[in-house]
Amino acid sequence: MGMFAGMLVAIFAFLTMIAAYALGGYVAGRMRTPVAGAGADEVAARDGVHGLTVWALSTIIGAVLAFGAVSGAVKTAADAAGATVQAGGQVVGGALQGAGQLAGGVVSGVGQMAGGAVQGAGEAAGGGGGLSDMLPPEARENPLDYITDRLLRPQESAPQPYSDADLRQQIAGIVGSVLRNGELSDDDRAYLARAVAARTNLSEAEANARIDDAVGEVTALRDAAQQRLDEAKAAATQARDEAQQRIDQAKQEAIAAAEKARRAAVWGACLLAVSSLIAGAAAFAAAIRGGRDRDAGTVWSGLLHGPRG
């Protein structure tokens, strides 16, 4: 239906152009001042040239107007397409950058979790959610302080002979190392056993048991963080692949549309050139016909002739 309508419009435009140029050529030939003493061929040539002059001037004016309209439309379409592509690129780039920051933030956060940096890792992983969402409520604010408190929690009857500020700082560093590396060295274990036993009045076996519990909690946190990291990487990879797929699809559609437009423009230019030549011939012939009616003193009304009153 759309192609049929387009053909009808093209045929109507072609016939209208031919009729307009023919009418213009006829008027030019009919209104030309005759030259005394000129032969029939000279008169026909002069009349025909006047018709061609009308055709040429009309073609130039039409071309200028059409060029202005087409250039304005093309500029508007190009600006709109450029804005759309730029906005789409910014959206895709922002999504890819956000996905990369999500994965990179989790990696950086897991590598910087000493001294209560788990919360910072959660923020780096996306702002509103992260590692802190995986922690128990009592450990959500600062898991290292929570685990250190568990290590240094004294028995009810245990004395507290000294301040534990320095000891807490050292133990927090060891726990942070376990959180980063997933392992507790023999030297660190021996130090923790001595420190916990001295601080809590526990036996060495009880201190080691408490250390094992703390290491287990840290390992669980680290495993959960690694799981979140893997999920973030998978999400980032999926988002990047989907974005790249959309970009490739958009490129192919743009190439196909450009090729279709190019072919339509080529065919349109060819048809316009042929139509213009036919219109020029019609203007030339109509001008000669107008000159004959001028010399005969008749007026052309449709296809009928009648004497001038």
TrEMBL record:
Residues forming coiled coils: 215-260
Segments traversing the membrane: 48-70, 264-288
Keywords: Coiled coil, Membrane, Transmembrane, Transmembrane helix
Name of protein: ATP synthase F0 subunit B
Naturally occurring in which organism (per UniProt): Rhodovulum sulfidophilum (Rhodobacter sulfidophilus)
